[in-house]
Design brief:
The chain is mainly alpha-helical. It has one helix and no strands.
Length: about 50
């Protein structure tokens, strides 16, 4: 049975938006950390090659 006219489902929409934003931010943060780790590894490897 449909909801009466004018009744909105804003509480669940807000919750969903919040959770999706959290998920996206977590993904971006993990990608950034991964890039930083890779840069550090590459930098360390290039220093090691220079010293040999």
């Amino acid at each position: 049975m449909p909801k009466p006219k004018g009744q909105k489902n804003t509480k669940n929409k807000a919750k969903h938006s919040k959770l999706m934003a959290k998920k996206v931010n977590k993904k971006k943060k993990e990608e950034l950390l991964r890039k930083q780790r890779l840069k550090a590894i590459i930098k360390g490897a290039s220093k090691e090659d220079d010293s040999n």
